[in-house]
User: Fold this.
Amino acid sequence: MKHAERSLNRTERLFALILLLQNRPSMTSRQLAEHFGVSRRTIFRDLRALSESGVPLTYAEGGGYEILEGYQLPPLMLSAREAATLLVGTEFMKLQSDASLRKDADEVGLKIRSVLPREVQEYIDRLNERTVLDPYWLHAEAQEDEAHEGRWYQLSEAAARQRSVLMEYYVPSRDEVTKRKIDPLGLVYFTDHWNVIAHDHLRDDIRNFRLDRMRKLHVLTERFEPPEGFDLSTHLQQQGEGQQAEEIQLWFDAQVYASARRGIPATIDHEEEAADGVHVVFRFENLPYVARWLLRFGSQARVESPEKLQEMVKEEASQLIDMYAVEK
Assistant:
């Protein structure tokens, strides 16, 4: 696999070579050449240059090049574009409801700024003045219980360290709080909220749990082993294509489809542009969710099938009409 869409100059390649060998040791000269899209002779010259500059290179017993553990690069020098990308990422994290994530994002942003040259800092300031991620966002900081802070970090660390978790979880459909023991397998962000994908001991199955519905959380010292062969991306794809999933066919006005496409909660099986808009097909099991989601597009979206989804949208719309009806 070639490294980038554009070719790197030698300085960039040497820097990237160090990072690559630190993160993926035991790569051969052939693999390195393929990665960067250069000849093996060029890779040998680069390796020699790194060695002469003091980088502790070695050749692994099993084959491939490595950098001895403990070697650290000098402080990173970021381009204006790279710094902007990182800082926009921290601004996105500031939109999260978890106050600890917002605090961490602020601190990371300050650390990034502290290593930037003044001209790049000034560029970033101008960029921030002209960039708004969500003009209507209101932080829920004042309403958030301090005991709920840090759930994202606790769960991500538990997943990385394979630690089981005890929690109290609110179930809206039954309006009750249940106690669960789960093995967190990964976290995923769905449009406006975080979910943890976990093995639920109560149901003996892999389930999704919303972080904003967790009431109490305690990470145990008990370790777990993930299900054999479990892969988070594959699980999410299969979840959208499960046996209970139904084929859904929708039409969107072309003006809203780009926005709608980002919100489709499954892998798209087929999409086709037509004179009147865009037709799209996917499989998903939670039809009530799709019905409520479609209302945001009004008359610019239409259910073509299944019929029961059409009825759900009609029912949702009817309830809205009744709610706003004025008695005469």
The first helix runs from residue 10 to 23. The CA atoms of residues 55 and 245 lie 54 Å apart.
